[in-house]
Amino acid sequence: MDHSSISFAGAGRVAFALCKELFTAGNKIDLVVSTTEHTGASLARLCNASWSTDLNFPDSTNIIIVAVPDHKLISVLHTLNCNPDTLVVHTAGSFGLDIFPGKIKRKGVFYPMQTFSPGRVIDFKELPFLLESSDELTSLTLKKLAESLGSKIQFVDSEHRRLLHLAAVFICNFTNHMLTRGEEVADKAGYSLEMFKPLIVETINKAVENGPKNSQTGPAFRNDNITIVKHLDLLSFSPELKRIYSEVTQSIINYYDDKK
Predict the structure, then answer these.
(1) pLDDT tens by residue, 89-146
(2) Which of 39, 57, 97 is nearest to 73 (CA)?
(3) Is the dihedral angle over the CA atoms 233, 238, 240, 244 positive or is it negative?
(4) CA 244/CA 232 separation, integer angstroms
(5) SS3 (DSSP) at 111
(6) CA angle, 136 then 138 then 144, to 5°
(7) CB 6 within 8 Å of CB 66
(8) Is 108 helix (H, G, I), strand (E, B) or coil?
(9) How far apart are CA 113 and CA 35, in angstroms?
(10) Residue 168 CB neighbour total at 10 angstroms
(11) How far apart are the C-alpha atoms of 209 and 232, rounded to whole Å?
(12) HSE-up of 206 (CA within 13 Å, CB side)?
């Protein structure tokens, strides 16, 4: 395939992983723009690119990928300067094409549905990219770009992508928070999260293979009130954890009562 000349606005977790992967796939990285020299210059060096704090992009750039925190996205899109023919895309799951200013004619969304953290190596093979574009040429360009990474491609409009982003918050972020709070309880007994590794792996594997609603177990699923009361008593050290336990337990009970 024809490789692109790409520049990045942003050098955070998403930009870092995506930029390195696109560079490895044979794309030329022109410029990395970041107000933070440590991350911006480091990423630029890794990808043989230039680094700048200025949102002025060279004419040699075919695609600008804006990968910045959501609260900065509008400001960056309105501030950047580029050739009118340059394609500008953002990586935010909860924003659509309507966020782009009128000066940007070719625009799109290049959203990788994955969690990114420092030091973690992401396998882009089979990773879903949810794409949206302003025109057919942009659709083809974004499709080829995702294919260069071996990723899965879905064209999804803004409304449905926002719902998928919300689903990802439940599936990823809320699940991780439950692991964090569970680790706190385990720590009370003097044990680490490592003990729960087989349980965590089987829980996720079973949910993916059988469907989460078919995989629920535990006292709330059984409506085992004796065990639930004991657990609430054990959580007397933390009113917040007691409230979370009560609310999630009741949600599980209600969900499966409705299915009976």
Answers:
(1) 999 999 999 999 999 999 999 999 999 998 889 999 989 999 999 999 999 999 999 9
(2) 97
(3) negative
(4) 10
(5) strand
(6) 105
(7) no
(8) strand
(9) 25
(10) 17
(11) 32
(12) 12
Q: Is the pTM of this model over 0.85?
A: yes
**Residue located via tokens 């990802």:** 168
| Rounded-to-integer distance, Cα 5 and Cα 64, Å | 9
Residues 202 and 208: their CA atoms lie apart, in Å, by 10
Cβ neighbours, 10 Å, residue 214? 9
The CA distance from 10 to 162, in Å, is 22
For 41-80, the pLDDT digits (tens) are 999 999 999 999 999 999 999 999 999 999 999 999 999 9
- The number of residues making up the chain comes to 260
229, two tokens? 């009361």
**d(C-alpha 128, C-alpha 112), whole Å:** 6
